[in-house]
Amino acid sequence: MAYDCVKVIVVRDGSAILFSEFGQKPVNVGDVVLLGANVLCGAEPEGHVITTTIYLDTDYLVDQVFWQYAGLLRDRLDAQGLASQLYSEPAQILRIGEYRAGSLMPWLDELVALSIGRNFGAHFNRTQALWFSVANVIGPYVAVTPMRISPSQRARSRPTVPRSRRFAPLRDEARRAREAMIGDLAANWTLNDLACVVHLSPRQVARVFIDAYGKTPQAYLTMLRVEKMARLLRSTNLAVAGIGREVGWRSRSRAVEAFRECTGITPVQYRQMGVSPDSSPGSGQ
Fold it and tell me: Which of 150, 175, 200, 214 could join 205 via S-S bond, C-beta 3.0 to 4.6 A?
């Protein structure tokens, strides 16, 4: 199964064979499995296996990356790009050792206890503190892709609206519909088009997609287009109308409207956030 969230799986007892994007690997006590969003993974216990799994919303993790590197990043979209480059491995087995894994158990037990009641608001600070304690132990073992970050990448944060997330198993049809849209953002995607891609009825594909990603396919497509617009506004001098057409909007007004709805500012304002005082105006204003 694949989930639209990051999973941290701590092996508490026993052993198993994992089948995932890293191939077939054994896991035992002292191992932590780290799975990126939308990564397929299955397991076959060897006798028995006991695990505790932490489900982490990707938006929540991107926010943590932003604040960790706030002095180097322009905004939350920059943080998303940095996170995808730093943590490019979709699936990892962290061999932290039985002693370190044992030190996690009291925190994991308390996380489980706090999760059962589902009164997350009342326990938010404690839950976050427990997660940070776990992350502090496993963090040094996470494989990171080396990269250089320019110190000139500085600006303000524009967080996006958080998503509702149920952490249900991700159906293959939802993932294929998402990949189809990512593969051709400029296409005029309709529910009928996506239904043909995944071989479901339009009503079914809408329901499956909403269950998986918390958004309608059209809303998700708009989000993807705005993210690409933001990248092009930062990295090119193309006119706003041209960028809008490249990501799939036929008119400049529609591109501006969608961008403002998602980010709270216009494309021109967003571009100006990255212009230094001594820079000359770009040709794409």
Answer: 200
